[in-house]
Amino acid sequence: MAWLAAPLAEVRSGDSVDLLAVRSGDHPIAVAIAADLRVMSADERVVVFEVNEESATAIATARASGLLIVPLLRSTH
User: Fold this and answer.
1) Tell me, what's the pLDDT at 2?
2) 62 vs 59: CA distance, rounded Å
3) What string of DSSP letters covers the chain?
4) pTM of the model as a whole
5) How far apart are CA 39 and CA 25, in angstroms?
6) Which of 32, 36, 59, 60 has the highest CB neighbour number within 10 Å of its CB?
7) Measuring CA to CA, how many Å separate 46 from each of 2, 40, 49, 61, 68?
8) Close Cβ partners of 3 (under 8 Å, ≥ 6 residues apart)
9) Do residues 55 and 65 lie in contact, with contact meaning Cβ atoms separated by under 8 Å?
10) Where are the domains of the chain?
């Protein structure tokens, strides 16, 4: 989970996560790049998300652009 800019709360298979791409500095920005990603598996080192082509492209583009990726665990309530 080294590519995540913030620690992810404890997740379980079936949980949903949103991802934001963030840049700080003189011109800060935060953009939602993937929504409602289903956690397929997780342990203390790895989280596997189910993503579609659009989300995968957005995540890869954000990483290649040097943006930080911030995970947000969706509430189950």
Assistant:
1) 64
2) 5
3) -TTBSSPPPP--TT-EEEEEEEE-SSS-EEEEEEEEEEEEEE-SS-EEEE--HHHHHHHHHHHHTT-EEEEEEPP--
4) 0.85
5) 31
6) 59
7) 9, 11, 10, 21, 17
8) 63, 69
9) no
10) 16-73
